[in-house]
Amino acid sequence: MRLFDFHCDTIYEALVKGCDISNPAFHITPEKSKGIAPYIQCFAICVPEEITGERATKMFTEAYKKLKEQCAKFDIRIIKNYSDLSEVAESQGRGAVFTVENASVLAGDINNIELFKDYGVRIVTLTWNGRNELGAGAMVSHSNGITKFGIEVITRLEANNILVDVSHASDRLFYDIVKYSEKPLIATHSNSRAVTNHKRNLTDEQFCIIKRRNGLVGLNFHRDFLNKDKLKASKTDILRHAEHFLSLGGEDNLAVGADFDGCDLPVDVLGINSMPDIYEAFLKINYPEELVEKIFFKNAYEFCQNFDK
Predict the structure, then answer these.
(1) Which one, 11, 17, 59, 63, has least CB within 10 Å?
(2) Which fold has domain 3-307?
(3) Helix boundaries (H) for 102-232
(4) Domain residue spans in the chain?
(5) What's the average pLDDT block by block, 10 residues per block, for the chain (309 residues)?
(6) Which pTM value belongs to this model?
(7) How many CB atoms lie within 10 A of CB 244?
């Protein structure tokens, strides 16, 4: 099978644990992903909210060095330009896209976006769950939306063809991002709030806004976002969220953002090695293979290929 996954925290885990991405405890390893080709994985550096200022920027820099080291060691191509995707796909290879989860790594300095350009960052969330210099995340009780600095960051990111990711945004921040952005939006790892009522999930209106902006939403495998009773979460719930988004006309806007190594998985999902089983589960409920292929690979691949044009 082919896979393009918009979000994992594997490089962050490898960095803080001081180990290789081959660590068998990880959801994603080179060994576990055998049989998936081509395989494009977005590797996020998620900076914890207690790490701010220069410490956050330093962690971001260290994560990039770790990604380079690991990609060289395990024959993974770092994709800084989406035009490189075709070579990875045609060679049935593996590609890595560097992303940022929580733009506090900018340390309040707009000029640090130059680091994003230098390191090939292609996707950025403005916040994590809390509040930072750009705005308020999904778990903030009383969101003040976006800040003046956040507006400046959106403008500069889009000027450099870096995608603004609305996952983790509070509702108010989401609508502010819509107001101040011009390019397609992406929610790299978010599910449906209509299916599971969680602040980290998207409302139908939010999904439809992303759809109208020709953006994408990546299905998240975190059990809390899949089922209101997290202990009962299963891959069947992944199908339920997909089915709901598809009912809103999202055939061309749905992708995968599993959140491997950054989430608690359902009992019947082990990690990247479960992806072929999940793919088959989609087929077993009579989805055409063309549609399943779009969700797992084609929508993300074509979106990114066209984004730089």
Answers:
(1) 17
(2) TIM Barrel (3.20.20)
(3) 113-119, 148-159, 171-180, 204-212, 223-226
(4) 3-307
(5) 98 98 98 97 96 96 98 98 94 98 97 97 98 97 94 98 97 98 97 98 98 98 98 98 98 98 98 98 96 98 91
(6) 0.97
(7) 18
